[in-house]
Amino acid sequence: xxxxxxxxxxxxxxxxxxxxxxxxxxxxxxxxxxxxxxxxxxxxxxxxxxxxxxxxxxxxxxxxxxxxxxxxxxxxxxxxxxxxxxxxxxxxxxxxxxxxxxxxxxxxxxxxxxxxxxxxxxxxxxxxxxxxxxxxxxxxxxxxxxxxxxxxxxxxxxxxxxxxxxxxxxxxxxxxxxxxxxxxxxxxxxxxxxxxxxxxxxxxxxxxxxxxxxxxxxxxxxxxxxxxxxxxxxxxxxxxxxxxxxxxxxxxxxxxxxxxxx
Length: 262
Description:
Layout: E1 2-4, H1 10-20, H2 22-28, E2 30-34, H3 36-44, E3 49-54, H4 61-67, E4 73-77, H5 79-85, E5 94-99, E6 115-120, H6 125-138, E7 142-146, H7 155-160, H8 164-167, E8 170-173, H9 175-184, E9 188-192, E10 197-199, E11 209-213, H10 222-227, E12 230-233, H11 245-259
Parallel strand pairs: 1-4, 3-4, 6-7, 6-11, 7-8, 9-11, 9-12, 10-12
Antiparallel strand pairs: 2-5, 3-5
Helix pairs in contact: 1-2, 6-11
């Protein structure tokens, strides 16, 4: 088995670039997954691993062999090398290089009566990760990211989604592409916005439904407000008129699931 003990190793340097640079991820078509649970979720979600790097003092190689595929390359690394690659503070001693998926919206396959979350132009990786966790928790059929502003394989999205990046069917496209896709599939569009809205709980989400949320700073663009079957609002009693986007999405998604009988 190959061993790497130096942080100056060229391959290790290339992996550091994968962690730090979206351009490097895009050029190689690969990204890093840190942590055994996240790696197992990626495999469950159909991701292909190229390389697994592990610290033998921190994780049992014989147990890993039982759980991870033989097809990938295995490399034993020193703690110092792992610390160079690790994005999280907690140390598990394993990181994998995985191939990205194609997230073109035309490739998305939905069930007959889908419940879909649409997120427009979310800039903060932490917010997008939280949205993916919310979608997974509710069992949404897909997450559509319109006008994406951050690299889907940003390590902070992988971390903040707690592996839900891999458990959700995800598609990306411009707002116009996503709207066209939804309309072609006869999916009703409910846009969360202050303008021309009714209370979210007054609508029927038992049919094919897309719930659309935007940024906390500016909300949804006019494109989504105008394309909506109905604009919706979450009534609030406080001083401010907005909340964290993942919290808003959770309220809307769980109301839809309640109507569908959980």
